[in-house]
Every structure is written in structure tokens, then in C-alpha cells.
């Protein structure tokens, strides 16, 4: 039996945002590219997301935020990861995020922010290059 390297990603919609079409497309693109994807669904708290990522032994968390609460939600997820000694889990995301907020998100530790218009191929390629696969 051949052992293959896989990237495991948790994808979630934190907060009150109820629009999930885009995040489901991203989850499917990552899965179609051979990654293991755990889609946690809508209305997740940062605590639920971090707990799920740790339980799933994920290497990355992808957040989709359209509600305008991106600064608070990304910051809280990163804070919880540090508290749980899981800061090695990379956090990336996208949604309706103003360009002027991206430098602060970078400073907080968000690995990558995808803005509207990013293609699924761009996202797949970034995940492949930024997240090391493991056996």
C-alpha cells in the first residue's frame, strides 16, 4: 500500500454570516486538488474552529468572512491557536476584506488574505506552496 502526502485543511464560516456558496466552492476545489478538507459549516465560533482544527490535526484553517467582523474573528482564532500551543496551524481566508485592513491582518499572523476575484486555482496553488504536506 502506497502512502501519499496530504494537506489537511479546516474550512469554516465564523460569526453570523450566512452566505456559504463561495466557501463551499473553495472547499470543493481544495478537495479536488487532493487535499483533505473538513468543512465545519456556518455560524462557527472561533473556539469551535480552533477546537475542530486541533481535533482534525489540520495544518491550516481557512476562514470565509463576509460580515465585516474579519479583524475581530481572525485575531481571536490566532489568539486561541497560540493559547493551545497550535500556532503552527496556518490561518488564511477571504471574503469582503478591505485592502487597507490586509497589512494589519498580516501583522496579526494571517498567512494569506484572498479578496473578491481570487480564483480557486490561485487559492489551491497558494495552499500547496505555503502548507507542507505530510504523510
Automatic annotation (TrEMBL):
<dbReference type="GO" id="GO:0016853">
    <property type="term" value="F:isomerase activity"/>
</dbReference>
<dbReference type="GO" id="GO:0046872">
    <property type="term" value="F:metal ion binding"/>
</dbReference>
<protein>
    <submittedName>
        <fullName>Methylmalonyl-CoA mutase</fullName>
    </submittedName>
</protein>
<keyword id="KW-0170">Cobalt</keyword>
<dbReference type="Pfam" id="PF02310">
    <property type="entry name" value="B12-binding"/>
</dbReference>
<dbReference type="InterPro" id="IPR006158">
    <property type="entry name" value="Cobalamin-bd"/>
</dbReference>
<keyword id="KW-0413">Isomerase</keyword>
<dbReference type="GO" id="GO:0031419">
    <property type="term" value="F:cobalamin binding"/>
</dbReference>
<keyword id="KW-0479">Metal-binding</keyword>
<keyword id="KW-0846">Cobalamin</keyword>
<dbReference type="InterPro" id="IPR036724">
    <property type="entry name" value="Cobalamin-bd_sf"/>
</dbReference>
<feature type="domain" description="B12-binding">
    <location>
        <begin position="6"/>
        <end position="134"/>
    </location>
</feature>
<dbReference type="InterPro" id="IPR006159">
    <property type="entry name" value="Acid_CoA_mut_C"/>
</dbReference>
Amino acid at each position: 500500500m502506497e502512502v501519499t502526502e496530504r494537506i489537511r485543511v479546516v474550512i469554516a464560516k465564523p460569526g453570523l454570516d450566512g452566505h456559504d456558496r463561495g466557501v463551499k466552492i473553495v472547499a470543493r476545489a481544495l478537495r479536488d486538488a487532493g487535499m483533505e478538507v473538513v468543512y465545519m459549516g456556518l455560524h462557527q465560533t472561533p473556539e469551535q474552529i480552533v477546537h475542530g482544527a486541533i481535533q482534525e490535526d489540520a495544518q491550516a484553517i481557512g476562514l470565509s468572512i463576509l460580515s465585516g467582523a474579519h479583524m475581530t474573528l481572525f485575531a481571536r482564532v490566532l489568539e486561541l491557536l497560540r493559547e493551545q500551543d497550535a500556532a503552527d496551524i496556518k490561518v488564511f481566508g477571504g471574503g469582503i476584506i478591505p485592502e487597507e485592513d490586509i497589512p494589519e491582518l498580516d501583522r496579526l499572523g494571517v498567512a494569506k488574505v484572498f479578496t473578491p476575484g481570487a480564483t480557486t486555482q490561485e487559492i489551491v496553488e497558494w495552499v500547496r506552496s505555503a502548507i507542507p504536506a505530510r504523510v
